[in-house]
Specification:
371 residues, alpha+beta, Nucleotidyltransferase, domain 5, Substrate Binding Domain Of DNAk, Chain A, domain 1, 2 domains, 7-stranded mixed sheet, 5-stranded antiparallel sheet, 19 strands, ATPase_NBD, HS12B protein
């Protein structure tokens, strides 16, 4: 077997982790663990800065300023973004963040004293006021803004590395816009450099885009994926006394049926090869039925039994017109068969329902990578 590696896509809002193994000799990729992520992106640093401003100037003032002076608030966040990108573990000089004039003026009118007084009263020792109209943040203050988000990312990667399916990782690729941060690069290197080789590619912010383009040119490069969810359809089954709850009993034309059964096609975290097809056969509930509707459901767990279970949600519907072919002759020729199939492994699930008697079919697609 080939090398195993983790890709940590660190963006603005989330950090997403995938684990792949290179398959030899063909050079295709096999997904070893379903993609996982969390809200640990660069926006966490922005929120920490906003929290610091609230501590210095007051929650009520910041809320009012954002509502009454939205353009000035955007200017302030842009100024912070530039300083955030300049933050580095080796930096010893302060980082200056320009406060818009409207912020300084609005604060004086709102509170009756100036921002310098607010800073002094707040006892935030690592942030000073500059006479040029700037907040002067020490490297330690900037480091404190980064720490909660970086700690979450480190914990997330560490949890993944401890899973049995993810043993023998050789490389950790750090990609995405937030991966440009020297603060994050240093922290990841310090935490995992002894366990695997940490690689930050050139043009790290464009890596995901380049990968998407390469995948578009050759979709077969990822040969095996892990299903992010459990997928199935809602069906009627014969009611079994003692097995099925009474509230699921449906009596139709003298027959007892159990409604809302979740019939699985693939379970969460199950390996699915590119182009793999799962088929199931069903019969219409009534002999003279003109149309059959198949509802497709998904769930985060694999122990689901009914479509009414917590966490189950509908992700698609296909409607197949049966026409009136053989309405009267159904009993003589046997029950009509509807064949449902799901094709997995690509970025979309292709769902097909086929009426075997008339060869009439309908198709639908569901996003396979989205939760």
């Amino acid at each position: 077997a080939g090398d195993r590696y983790i890709v940590a896509d660190c963006g603005g809002g989330t950090v997403d982790l995938t684990v792949h193994q290179i398959e030899k000799p063909q050079g295709t990729l096999k997904e070893l663990y379903k993609a996982s992520g969390g809200p640990y992106g660069a926006v966490g640093v922005d929120l920490a800065f906003e929290k610091l401003l609230c501590h210095i100037f007051g929650d009520d003032f910041i809320a009012t300023f954002k509502a009454k002076r939205p353009a000035a608030w955007v200017d302030l966040t842009i100024a912070f973004e530039a300083r955030k990108r300049a933050a580095a573990p080796s930096r010893s000089s302060p980082l200056n963040i320009s406060l818009p004039f409207s912020f300084i003026d609005f604060y004086r009118k709102h509170r009756g004293h100036n921002v310098e007084t607010a800073l002094r009263k707040s006892n935030v020792n690592l942030v000073k006021w500059s006479s040029q109209g700037m907040l002067r943040m020490s490297p330690e203050a900037m480091n404190e803004l980064f720490q909660p988000t970086i700690t979450h990312i480190i914990q997330h990667i560490d949890t993944l590395l401890k899973k049995p399916e993810v043993q023998g990782i050789k490389f950790l690729f750090l990609v995405g816009g937030f991966a440009e941060s020297a603060m994050l690069q240093r922290a990841v290197q310090a935490a995992f450099g002894h366990r695997c080789r940490v690689i930050v590619p050139q043009d790290v912010g464009l890596t995901i885009l380049k990968g998407a383009v390469l995948f578009g040119l050759d979709p077969g490069v990822v040969r095996v994926r892990r299903s992010p969810l459990t997928y199935g359809v809602g069906v009627l089954n014969k009611f079994v006394e003692g097995k099925h709850p009474r509230e699921k009993l449906l009596v139709k034309e003298g027959k007892n049926w159990c409604t809302d059964i979740f019939e699985k096609f693939v379970a969460v975290d199950q390996s699915v090869a590119l182009g793999e097809v799962v088929q199931r056969s069903y019969c219409p509930a009534r002999p003279g039925q003109r149309r059959t509707i198949i509802n497709i459901y998904c769930c985060d767990t694999d122990d689901v039994v009914y479509i009414t279970d917590p966490g189950v949600r509908k992700c698609g519907t296909i409607s197949l017109e049966l026409g009136d072919a053989g309405d009267a002759g159904d009993a003589a020729r046997g029950r009509r068969e509807i064949r449902a199939s799901m094709q997995f492994g690509d970025t979309e699930i292709k769902v097909t329902a086929l009426d075997t008697r008339t060869a009439r079919s309908v198709r639908a697609t569901i996003d396979f990578l989205s939760n």
